[in-house]
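Morning!

This is the sequence you dropped in the shared folder:
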Amino acid sequence: MSAEIVFIGLGNMGLPMAQNLVKAGHQLSGHDLVKSSVDKLLASGGVTEANAMAAVAKAKVVMTMLPASRHVESIYLGEQGILSQLQPGTLLIDCSTIAPEVSRKVASAAQQRGFDMLDAPVSGGTNGAAAGTLTFMVGGSDQAFARAKPYLEKMGRAIFHAGASGSGQTVKVCNNMLLGILMIGTSEALRLGIANGMDPKVLSEIMSKSSGRNWALEVYNPCPGVMDAVPASHDYAGGFGVDLMLKDLGLAVESALATDSSVPLGALARNLYDIHSKAGAGGLDFSSVFNLLATTK
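The structure's back. Tokens below.
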């Protein structure tokens, strides 16, 4: 029996998303270059095929969660890519975080061939992916969104239709640029308070009830010991990596250049995360930028 859904890209986010679709009762064929990821899906009740494109040719829905724009372009638009293999009526959902212009390019090619396609990047991290509580930011037609929503609801709690193709990516880029800026600003404020003798827990509590309150301060505090269940209190392990934040800030700067927009703080945040990554912190959680701002004496 052919799988209803083909899911390509079983990384830290893609695997738990695919597992939640399997848990919801969907017949799903998963594919990834890393065999151990495929094995984990099989252990969860999913299936696979030796040839991903053979599975694509029989699917009703194809979902992708890939690292970067070039991977999405290649797998959809390549000579033997997804668009050349599909049966009529297949729904395409790309959950990768990529450049909005690339999403629009791929969606346009899909539409020219008669296929509904959505860009549907996510927010919520690996914990949200595992719990099925992701936020989806979706770009595409009303018709495609209506078709996709029952699937997205098995993986997420908040499903937003942002607008036409590329809109989901635009929202994701804007959101993560703001998040990167807020994390640096929060880290700076905490470092300044600590340098003046403040207890970071007390400082965080007061600021979280004042006009400086923000998500990084209240939910994902970057100072070790302030909150127990965040990466900062576990040597910055897990969570959302520095290199992933650097990638998203790079997309923001690229989009700003393409649209002649001004993002001075976004560009500065990107440069600071680049310095942090090159210092060896690329695999740590992005809140570890707190360490970059440590006072050297």
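Headline: The chain is about 50% helix and 10% strand.

More detail when I'm at my desk.
O.
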